[in-house]
Specification:
By secondary structure, this protein is α+β, with helices and mostly antiparallel strands. The chain folds into two domains: 166 residues, Threonyl-tRNA Synthetase, Chain A, domain 2 (2-Layer Sandwich); 119 residues, Diaminopimelate Epimerase, Chain A, domain 1 (Roll). Helices cover 43% and strands 28% of the residues. It is built from nine helices and 13 strands. It has a six-stranded mixed beta sheet with strand order 8-9-10-11-13-12, sandwiched between helices. It has a four-stranded antiparallel beta sheet with strand order 1-2-7-6. It is elongated and about 90 Å long.
């Protein structure tokens, strides 16, 4: 990868973003990692979305096609450079002790103080492609490619879009609407699943151990909403003298388990589950003394629930 071209393209990209946002940006750093590059922009200074990124990306490629020239200007200090170029973009902390300040000018587009090497014409960048934008701490992390790497990646993206179209029964013109429809349908089905899960949970009969003044809530569910189950368990153990053992069966003979108890019961759920695991090869998990999550073998669910209940009763009665 030609880092000179990549860094020059980054200058053009930031210059385009500045025009869109109508303000000077501070690029904290730029990393060049073949085949991609990353620009870090402070989130506190600007609000970005991919629509703005795409507009800037399009302009950079237009400037590349136009073959905008790159010029260099030398100054003895950053202040001198700013006197000549008031709109100059510069990382002042990094340049404050520099003996010479070099200003890189992209013809009628951008001015930036930079000590790195650059190409002489934007056409040497060939093609510019932003592949992603994400948050990294307090920075926007914008990944981009140039030249042949960018072209190859564009082809891969097109191939991926076509594969997605085949999978969801759409074409290039309808793929976004189809995905939105599928997402809405998924949300509707998920909400129905949560309601069904909650109904099954609230209908669980509570088993009372009279001689210990203790309530047991146990059941085995099939393909229900796990988050709803977790929330239910968390709510139930807020009530006094309560133990919860819930299993959710899923595919491939696997199941998720919650074993929890209220704070007024002297019971170490994690230790009991660990000891059961030593006796039975039934899964793994862990957590706190009052609440554990585990993955267990589905076909052993009945036995696991029975053992956890029996050991809990035995431990609390001793």
């Amino acid at each position: 990868m030609d880092t000179r071209a990549a860094h020059t393209a980054e200058h053009a990209f930031i210059g385009s973003l500045q025009k869109i946002l109508k303000r000077t940006l501070s690029v904290r750093k730029v990393e060049h990692k073949d085949p991609y590059n990353i620009a870090f922009i402070r989130k506190s200074e600007v609000e970005l979305d991919f629509e703005k990124i795409t507009c800037a990306e399009k302009e950079v490629n237009r400037l590349i096609l136009e073959g905008r020239k790159i010029s260099h200007h030398s100054f003895s200090s950053l202040q001198e450079a700013k006197n000549v170029f008031p709109t100059l973009r510069a990382n002042e902390t990094r340049l404050e002790n520099a003996d010479t300040i070099t200003v890189v000018e992209i013809e009628n587009h951008d001015l930036s103080a930079c000590s790195m090497e650059h190409v002489n014409n934007l056409s040497e960048c060939i093609f510019f492609l932003v592949t992603s934008m994400s948050m990294n701490g307090s920075d926007y992390e914008i990944r981009f490619m140039i030249g042949k790497n960018a072209m190859d990646e564009a082809v891969r993206i097109t191939e991926k879009i076509n594969n997605i179209c085949v999978q969801i029964g759409a074409n290039y013109n309808t793929v976004e609407a189809t995905i939105k429809k599928l997402s809405n349908e998924r949300e509707q089905y998920h909400n129905r699943l949560k309601k069904l899960t909650n109904k099954l949970l609230v209908d669980i009969p509570v088993r009372t151990i009279d001689n210990q003044n203790m309530n047991l809530i146990t059941t085995i569910l099939h393909d229900m909403d796990w988050r709803t189950i977790q929330d239910f368990a968390g709510e139930k153990i807020l009530k006094s003298r309560t133990i919860v053992v819930l299993v959710n069966m899923v595919d491939n003979d696997m199941a998720s388990l919650i074993f929890a108890r209220s704070d007024d019961i002297n019971l170490d759920c994690a230790k009991i589950f660990e000891e059961l695991g030593k006796d039975e090869n039934m899964g793994r998990g862990g957590g706190k003394p009052n609440f554990i999550n585990a993955k267990i073998i589905g076909s052993k669910s009945d036995k696991v629930v029975e053992e956890l209940v029996n050991r809990s009763i035995k431990f609390t009665s001793s």
